[in-house]
Amino acid sequence: MTGVSMGPFRSLTFDGAPAPVPPADLDARLPRPNSLRRAGEGSKVAVLVASEVLRAAGVEVGARTGVYVGQQQVALDYCAEFIDSSYRNGPRLASPMLFSESVANNAATHLSLTLKVTGVVQTFIGSRATGIQALQAAAEDLSAGVIDSGLAVVLSFSNALTSDAFNSLFRPYARARRPEAIRFRNGGVALLLRRAERTGPAPPRIAYAGVRVAGPDVESQSCALRGLWGDYRARHPRPASLAASAFCLARRQGQEVLRRALGDEAPRLDERPGEAFALDPVLQLLDGEKVAGRAVICLGEEGSTGLIALETR
Amino acid sequence: MTLPSERVVVTGLAYVTSLGFGHEDHEPALRAGRVGSGPIRRFDTRGFRTATGGQCDEARLDGLLRQRWSGAQLRGLDVDTRMLLWSVAAALDDAGLAPESLPAPLPAVVGTTLEGFWQGEKWYDQVFHGSLSRARPARLRTATSGGQIAAVSRLLRLPMEPTVVSNACATGVSAIGRLFRRIAHGSCQAGLAGGYDTLTRFIHLGFDSLGALTPQRCAPFDRKRSGFFIGDGAAMLVLESLSSARRRGARIRAELLGYGESADSYHATHPEPSGIGIAGAILQCLHAARIDPSKVDYVNAHGTATPANDSAEANGILLAFGPGDGARVPVSSTKALVGHTLGAAGAVEQCFCILALERGFLPPQANLEEPDPECPLNLVRDPRGAPRVAMNNAFGFGGANGVLLSRRWEEKP
Questions:
Q1: Which end of chain A is more exposed for a tag (fewer CB within 10 A), N or C?
Q2: B340 is catalytic
């Protein structure tokens, strides 16, 4: 994996509570002709950041370009609208357009259609660690020679429905009775990965990427993190910079997981307000792009535990 | 592509559909062309164009799970999670792998298109018809696939390295293909791969709105075909490097030879009609496996029985295999029997390929009355045959194409 370099990246984020507001000029910034007018915001942001990265890198897309999308919360607006319309108007009047926009690989589909990608196009879902998994998959396919360049796109799109769901599910939030307590940061980031020999001087390289799950309790998660940390440290020296993020409503548990797993080496959790799910660990990783040896830990509310590390030479 | 360093074999598998559990239930059903669909009981179908689906035997599933876990341990798990739990546990048993004996977390590449939508839509239904304050938040505990695989990991006391793939209806094949490549290139020695999805109101509504569900029989490649029905499904396979399987004396079920994938880049829901994207995935798979099309003895087609999908697939097969082998190779779609199991389809159908290789028969094309001349394939009419090499096609929304090739295990131990 150390043979895989990170090329340019582009990100776009916006926040709010309970529904983050996208920039007003989102449509205007999309490539022309704009075939995404009826697409969800997640797909639009995915295409925007991916197009900008490809343009910056001067990469021609083809059958040897792979697209790897990591996401936890996307397309929920269309899901909700689709279900709503079926209840309000009856199943026979439900719009198939809404359905096709609500499937999980919808953003990947729009990337493939807009960028004319005919090779590997995959979507990873289900946890805060899916951004790490998208990078990991791109790196694996590069190492195996399946692709020549890999575009990893990480997305997070929450809405009022997500806010209501977390309000219902997580007791600390419900007890707080402050609907504004949870702020979502929505957005997307795209990174281009290539084999090291194809890139310029001293780009950051992916040194390690791994995700584990054993259960959502403190003991299981700290055991998983100890395993990841041990695996990483067996191959690499201690990183110059170590950062971590946990689901925003489980930071106390997250800090305890870090303390039990890493002892004195445990970093302080990211205190930025709000939650960007899969986007959080990748944004943290990019924060440290210029730091020699950066590692980022990601703790998910469902028990996923991820570690991704960069090395800079 | 760099040359694979390891041969990859299947050492365990388990699957459930509306036809039952594993090879013993499915072999007679596939041979006889028994269909696993019926009236949907799981949700109110009034107002839908179609009201037929394939539901698994939940009582039997629960009975199997209760042999291992208490009711309290299983409480709150939805049908998808229970099917996933059973198939993971049974595949590990089939492979002779005890979770406590594994030295490190087990890689698990799992595919789903719906993840916990079963729970999500019930919660949403409560919100819509009642109020947020009255909705039961417990519904959302396993509403993400991350939560579902975490529940499986916890109940099995099995630490995992999970990856959840969602590539529309190519998901199951994508999941197996990803783990295949990891093992073939030496990233890991063994792991679990497969897929799962259930019939929910949301997904039935979605395909109903597209006009893809048939009010009649699901008849792939038939001139009068009119679509499919949605079925429950979960299938998990234990993949292992040949050296690892030999080291521990495992029973080898089949060898995975290759995986190919491509994207049509054509339309959000329709396949590219000439089949060029499909042919690309097939050729990539054959190339990776270093197998000539003349050596392929059976193709388990994606075959959704929609007019556009079947003709595009037929074109893709003919384009990749050439007119001679394309018209020769026996083809059938088992979706006629178990329906479209979505994220599970590619994995369930991989198990059907292994069933055909192990038991020496060709699954006949069920419900075929008048073959469509637009699909000039050699559709299986007679189960007699002893395939050695089987291809498994899976295609999905967004033009996602995935193809796997597997071979009967014949080498003496």
A1: C
A2: yes
